[in-house]
Amino acid sequence: MEGLQRCFVLHSRPYSETSLILDVFSEDSGRITLLSKGARRKRSNLKGALQPFTPLFMKWSGRGSMPVLTHAEPISISLPMRSYILYSAMYVNELLARVLENDTPYPMLFLDYLNVLRELAQAENPEPALRRFELALLQHLGYGIDFLHCAGSGLPVEDSMTYNYRDQKGFIASMVVGQLSFTGNELKAIAARRFETPEQLRAAKRFTRIALKPYLGGKPLKSRELFIPRGRSTGK
Fold first, then answer.
1. Residue-wise DSSP of 165-206
2. Collapsed DSSP state (helix, strand, coil) of residue 4
């Protein structure tokens, strides 16, 4: 077991006639790009293992931009992602691939990722699990916002009061209601990562979209396009 790391494949793409380039999230090394030589050959024993949502033990060698995969074995079977839940899991993978820098360890985020996959595999509604993971990801990236106190006065937020979000500052009490406005009740739910009403869940989604935007830049997430019905646009 020496040198092996717990990993998940986030995404793979063909390279040459027989190989794959893998975006991998590992417990000890974070996000890393690997070259898997011969993985596309018909007789390759890796062909069925290097799939998203399959827990793997992996080992690689070499330095530079693309180390070479030397060993991969499944720890267990793939976590089952049915129908629309699969799109949510693909969104989580794309999110990690887009916002994490290579070779930066996030061991606690790895556990959060494992937890969100387990939640999604059992979920009827993926939204609460996605919001909890997005909030955890922001925390691991160093995004620190106080949801429980007004950034202007320092007083605890009140359930029925409206607070406007200001980048790098937090939430400030305001009578103006708009896209950046949240009630104290919604902020408490976001802080606790517990969503008991549809309004709290929608507020959490609105906040995480705002907070993640600087990390994602202007390029849209491809996985979000899967949620748009054919022939229609959601405007997102």
1. EETTTEEEE-S--STTEEEHHHHHHHHHT---SHHHHHHHHH
2. coil
What's the fold here for domain 5-74? OB fold (Dihydrolipoamide Acetyltransferase, E2P) (2.40.50)
What digits encode the pLDDT tens for the residues 80-96? 888 789 999 999 999 99
Q: What share of the chain is helix, strand, coil (3-state, %, to 5)?
A: 35, 25, 45
pLDDT, tens only, 152-168: 999 999 999 999 999 88
DSSP 94: H
Q: Which fold has domain 84-224?
A: de novo design (two linked rop proteins) (1.20.1440)
Rounded to two decimals, the pTM is 0.89
Question: Which residue spans of the chain are classified as CATH 1.20.1440.120?
Answer: 84-224
